[in-house]
Amino acid sequence: MKNSTNSGSVSWESPSNIALIKYWGKKGNQLPCNPSISMSLKNSLSLTNLTYEPKGKGDQLSFLFEGKRQEPFEQRIANFFESLSDQFSFLKDFQISISSENTFPHSTGIASSASAMSSLALCLCSMEEEVTGVQVEKDEFYRKASLIARLGSGSASRSVYGGFVAWGESNSFSKSSDEYAVPFSQYIHPVFQDFQDAILLVSSEKKVVSSSAGHQLMVNHPYATARFAQANSHFERMLGVLRSGNLEEFIEIMENEALSLHGLMMNSTPSFTLLKPNTLELIERIRSFRLSSHIPIGFTLDAGPNIHLMYPKSEKEKVVPFIDSDLSPFLENGKYIIDEKGEGPQKIKI
Ligand code: DP6
Asked: Using 50, 70 and 90 to split pLDDT, how confident is the model at 141?
């Protein structure tokens, strides 16, 4: 217990994550139609600062992104805060200023809503502790942060933890929940402990379909039932693979998930093709390199054209030269970002 305050400032740094089993389709209040698994990243982070003081007349929420006012996002956050009146009844009494920045450039295929919303949710939970003077137990703190992050953006629920994280109810994972994500505290095979993700930038064009509109495509999708059954089965198999270290099976499931996601988008009504010709060229090249070199590299994709090339750290010295020589000619300005499994968010003392 400590004294409550009526003005203060809290900061959190929180990572983006890459989904191995995809969340695609939602129901009710931001609940997933199937369980998903992601790996939190180490270098792709959002740093968010939240400053609060007692509200005066006409005070408005303010939001700066990389030092500049972002009105559309400001509105989204204002709506988000209003929707949180049950969880954080104190919010209405405070004037709040938020500033956020990312360690990665825009439109790189790195999920910025996951890192941004998770860092904001963590700030809100820290603010709650300060204004109420009640410090909650660590597990409970993160569980609430994950739930709040989920209400902001589904995939953000997983960014509240480091390593491998599951979100969504599954019979094969006893602590799993649709409401919040759960970290893997069980044994994970050493090969995955320092797993690498090279983000290959095919195009930085703005997304043609937002994630929210994308999830809507699963409502009455002709393959919805089959997809949710497939995701459940992949989820269960992936849990086993993360323990066994079977890289062949890991790659098979991960690539199938990525292409299923894009297949579903292509045969949705309306239909979206987010893969670019160079994405397909890269996929072919990654697969033929794997066959000829026997190096276990595989790819996954978010809802966009950029590739996440996933591989064990022990292969880094062979994989990076392969990217430079064989893949970079197909990348926008030859650009890629080296990232890897990270340990999760950190509270920043200022
Ligand atoms: C393809 O979490 O961005 O990246 O809940 O509407 O904010 P909202 O969607 P979002 O969807 C992510 C979709 C995905 C797969 C995944 O990360 O699991």
From this structure: very high
